[in-house]
Amino acid sequence: MEVGWWGVLIAVLGGAIRIGTPFLFVSLGECLTEKSGRINLGLEGTLVMGAMTGYAVSLHSGSPWLGVLCAGLAGMVLGALHSWLCSFQRVNDIAVGIAMMLFGTGLAFFLGKPYIQPSAPRLPSIDLGGWSDVPQLKAALQINALFLIGIVVAVVLGWMLKNTAWGLKVRVVGESADAARALGLPVDRIRILSTAQGGFLAGIGGSYLSLYYPFNWSEGLSSGQGLMAVALVIFARWQPVGCLWVSLLWGGAAALGPSLQSVGVTGGYYIFNAIPYIMTLAVMIITCSPRRTLVGVPHELTVTR
Amino acid sequence: MSESRKLSRRQVLQGTAAAGALGLLGNVEWIGQAWGASDKVKMGFIFVGPRDDYGYNQAHFEGKAAVAKLDWVKAFDEEKVPETIEVQKTMESMVKLDGAQVLFPTSFGYFDPHIIKVAPQFPNIQFLHCGGLYQEGKHPKNVGSYFGFIDESQYIAGIVAGGMSKSGKLGFVAAKPIPQVLRNINNYTLGARSIRPNCTTNVIFTGDWSLPVREAEATNSLVDQGIDVITCHVDSPKVVITTAEKRGIYCTGYHCNQSKLAPKGYLTGAEWNWAKVYMDYAEMIRKGQTVPHLVRGGLKEGIVKVSEYNQVVTEAVRKQADAAKDKFMGGGMVVYKGPIKDNTGRVVIAAGKEHIQTDIWLESMDWLVEGVIGSTKS
Question: Do B52 and A117 touch (CB under 8 A)?
Answer without folding.
Answer: yes
